[in-house]
Design brief:
CATH topology of chain A: Rossmann fold
Helix content of chain B: 25-40%
Number of domains of chain B: 2
Helix content of chain A: 40-55%
Distance between the termini of chain A: 56 Å
Strand order of the largest sheet of chain A: 1-4-5-9-8
Oligomer: heterodimer
Largest sheet of chain B: 7 strands, mixed
Radius of gyration of chain B: 20 Å
Number of domains of chain A: 1
Number of strands of chain A: 9
Largest interface: A-B, 41 and 41 residues
Number of strands of chain B: 14
Number of helices of chain A: 11
């Protein structure tokens, strides 16, 4: 069977599934290495992971084109990779190096890469959604047909910025897609204390836009729903709200042991581990062989090693740089 | 010589029209929209209605609804959308209907917009127009002068013109600037102040103040509506007290024209820092500190400050009048200074 053909009952070609698998593996291992570096004291700030969210971060951006705008959140490391960001650049950001995209001005995914059209988040939850509406507006005014994809958590979805953006984008029919990553906890607060309605996608009705709730660990569900939303946005039919139900398998950040999360809940969700899910699917459908699996694993680790080595050997920015660059020329 | 003074003195070569402050803003916006198709307007009631103050009256018909965008009532979305569009190369001019309501978009402006170039190394060429100021019986929520909140946040350029000439030159410069510019336009000046404006194109450099009246004995460092009170007071001081007052109109609050401030203070040795914003935490405090640090040996009197009371803006006419600075209060402060 040719790699560029779709099997019966499959959404994507074998080649595409292998790409998705690679990116999800890479995301998982990248974040594991970030935690390791954090414990070694090599990461000066916080370390956040999206363990459990890989299918959402990777599958959603897989539905985008190069010219689309991406505004990722802190649990969407995979989205950076699919959009074309290099591991080296991401690692430089985490380690606060002078040759990072933010030149050490900010850490983690907090950078912009205009060539890849990636605009990282700030720490204020919801603050990027009005900006994503802005790039969607620019796209509409310039007749670019580019869509803007952004994310928010179950907790962050309550911030006023989210409402204002959806109110504006729905009326103007802006090409905006918002994924609410419902990962069950906002720091320590369970989702039951964040909302009174049944599903986050119910909120879409209030804006007169389509809303979907999907299993965020299922790569097919994520990709197909996002693809539909992207196509819709590109046709000029306006925004879509997608609730992706996942689990935050780690604490809020590396310092947080998350003792407040019931063990049973974690065990249940462990069975739906998105990386294992895609791996099982691909192995059982003979899209991925055991040899290929090993090869991909080795490739991922080698790439990571290179990025870590490169970042560690890269210098910090000169201290006096702190005073520069408040204004553009 | 200051550019504006040059323009004013060369009226033989310049065809001048006398227009109001609000017309000057409109003309500047219009010219920039004609010149650059990436400039667009976004705000509440600015299209069909022409804006709460009619600054953009007629714009919708001429430029179309894609460039004159009436939005939902949502200031955070307006500022956020302008920021997003600016980062990808547009030049939005956002209108906050009354500057008081900018508080609703404070997080966007301060956390996001202002720090974009520092964090992302990208330009964010946008203007936020902020109709501000008291004296129109607007009460606590339609009268503020909120410039000091943003003065404290690195990343903004801030302008506050006092005349039609400056209003037009600065709105054009603001639109062409590659940074977020907060443009404070005083509501009471809109139709009360008229002035000559050249028909030919000109810009006013952001960061440059202007001597609105030359004098030798006392400097008034001010901006916005208080420039006019200072000019009236200076005339009273000359005619009734024989004191020569220099009026320094800052025009730009960020960056401040410290050179102009210092040279005036070094000449006169006495200084009144005045603004319509309330005193405590106002920009005048920073200006006073700069003067005392850099001109201490030139000072013949303690630096004086004048501003509104440290209260919310009251509604009822006698209360508002008592709350606000006015020409009489400037005269009184100048007489006190003259005694040193």
């Amino acid at each position: 069977m040719a790699k560029d053909q779709k099997r019966k009952n499959n959404l994507l070609t074998d080649e595409q599934y292998l790409q998705l698998y690679y990116f999800m593996k890479l995301t998982r291992e990248y974040e594991e290495s970030i935690l390791k570096l954090y414990r070694q004291g090599k990461i000066v700030g916080g370390a956040y992971t999206g363990n459990g969210n890989e299918a959402t971060a990777v599958g959603s951006v897989f539905a985008l084109e190069k010219h689309d705008y991406l505004f990722p959140m802190h649990r969407d490391m995979g989205s950076h990779l699919v959009k074309g960001q290099s591991l080296r650049n991401l690692m430089l950001q985490h380690l606060g190096r002078g040759n990072s995209l933010s030149k050490g001005r900010d850490g983690t995914g907090h950078y912009a890469d205009p060539l890849l059209r990636i605009y990282g988040n700030i720490s204020h939850l919801g603050a990027m959604i009005p900006m994503a509406a802005g790039t969607a507006l620019a796209s509409k005014l310039r007749k670019e047909k580019s869509v803007s994809l952004t994310f928010i958590g179950d907790g962050g979805s309550n911030v006023g910025d989210v409402h204002e953006s959806l109110a504006m984008a729905s009326v103007m029919k802006l090409p905006l897609i918002l994924i609410i990553e419902n990962n069950q906890f906002a720091y320590s607060t369970p989702v039951q204390k964040q909302k009174a309605m049944e599903k986050y996608s119910d909120r879409a009705q209030g804006y007169g836009i389509p809303g979907f709730t999907i299993d965020g660990t299922d790569i097919d569900a994520v990709y197909s729903t996002c693809k539909e939303a992207v196509d819709r946005a590109r046709r000029g039919e306006g925004p879509t709200l997608i609730e992706s139900v996942t689990m935050r398998m780690h604490g809020h950040s590396a310092h947080d042991g998350a003792e407040y999360v019931p063990k049973q809940l974690l065990e249940e969700w462990k069975k739906k581990d998105p990386v294992e899910r895609i791996e099982k699917k691909l192995l059982s459908e003979n899209i991925l062989s055991h040899t290929q699996k090993e090869e991909i694993g080795k490739k991922v680790m080698a790439e990571l090693e290179d990025a870590i080595q490169f970042a560690i050997e890269s210098p910090y920015p000169p201290a006096e740089d702190a005073a520069l660059g408040v204004y553009a020329e | 010589m200051q550019l504006s003074a040059f323009m004013r003195n060369n009226f033989f070569t310049e065809i001048m029209a006398t227009i109001t402050y609000i017309e000057a803003i409109s003309k500047g916006l219009w010219e920039e929209m004609e010149r650059d198709s990436s400039v667009f307007l976004i705000g509440e009631d600015i299209g069909v209605f022409g804006g709460a103050f009619k600054v953009t009256k007629g714009f919708l018909k001429h430029f179309g609804e894609e460039r004159v965008i009436d939005t939902v009532l949502a200031e955070t979305a307006i500022i956020g959308a302008a920021t997003g569009a600016a980062v990808v190369g547009m030049r939005p001019v956002a209108e906050i209907q009354f500057s008081d309501f900018v508080t609703t978009a404070f997080s966007q402006l301060v956390n996001n917009t202002a720090s974009i170039h520092y964090r992302w190394h990208l330009s964010c060429p946008m203007v936020v127009r902020l109709p501000s100021g008291a004296g129109i019986h607007g009460g606590p929520f339609h009268s503020r002068n909120p410039e000091a909140w943003f003065f404290h946040q690195p990343g903004f350029k801030i302008v506050a013109p006092s005349t039609p000439y400056d209003a037009k030159g600065l709105i054009k410069a603001a639109i062409r600037d590659n940074n977020p510019v907060l443009y404070f336009e005083h509501k009471r000046l809109y139709r009360h102040i008229k002035g000559e404006v050249p028909e030919t194109e000109y810009l006013i450099e952001i960061g440059k103040g202007d001597i609105k009246r030359e004098g030798n004995d006392i400097s008034v460092i001010t901006y916005g509506s208080m420039v006019h009170m200072a000019l009236e007071a200076a005339e009273v001081l000359r005619s009734e007290h024989g004191v020569s007052v220099e009026v320094v109109d800052l025009r730009s609050l960020m960056p401040l024209d410290t050179e102009l401030i210092f040279s005036s203070v070094r000449k006169t040795g006495k200084v009144l820092v005045a603004h319509e914003d309330n005193i405590t935490g106002g920009i005048g405090g920073e200006i006073s500190a700069l003067i005392s640090q850099h001109c201490f040996e030139y000072l013949d009197a303690p630096i004086q400050r004048l501003g509104s009371l440290d209260t919310p803006t009251p509604y009822s006419p006698p209360l508002e009048e008592f709350f606000l600075p006015n020409t009489k209060k400037v005269v009184a402060a100048l007489i006190e200074l003259a005694k040193y």
